[in-house]
Design brief:
alpha/beta, Rossmann fold, 5 helices, about 20% strand, globular, Sig_transdc_resp-reg_receiver, phosphoprotein
Length: about 130
């Protein structure tokens, strides 16, 4: 079974930045999958079963909080690691992220090296 990371953001340039940031993990067998909204993300989480999801909060159709909550309430998916990646850095938003089960809450702008290192650690590839 290959390791998979799902990148979810409605902003194409953020998706591209995250993909470029994490692409060095592809050399270690990690498959990167992209989604542009919450509905697409839920569908891919159910079909592809990624180990890690980098999830934007503010998106059309289904926001990141709702996606996270649905994943964490599904016994078959609740082990999925959800990293909320958002411009919403207020304490209220972080609290909401914890309430819906996010494993990590990272605010934009983010440190690309830190994201790659964290993803590799969570997949057991390093550290």
């Amino acid at each position: 079974m290959s390791n998979k990371i799902l990148i979810v953001d409605d902003e194409p340039h953020i998706r591209l930045l995250l993909e470029q940031t994490l692409e060095e993990l592809e050399a270690e067998g990690v498959e990167l999958i992209l989604a542009a909204n919450g509905e697409e993300a839920l569908e891919l989480i159910r079909t592809e079963r990624p180990q890690i999801v980098f999830l934007d909060v503010m998106m059309p159709r289904l926001n990141g909080f709702d996606v996270c909550q649905q994943v964490k309430q599904d016994p078959e998916l609740q082990h999925t690691i959800i990293i909320m990646l958002t411009a919403k850095g207020q304490e209220f938003d972080k609290q909401r992220g914890q309430e819906v089960g996010a494993d990590l809450y990272i605010t934009k702008p983010f440190d690309p090296d830190m994201l790659t290192t964290k993803a590799a650690e969570l997949l057991g590839l390093r550290g």
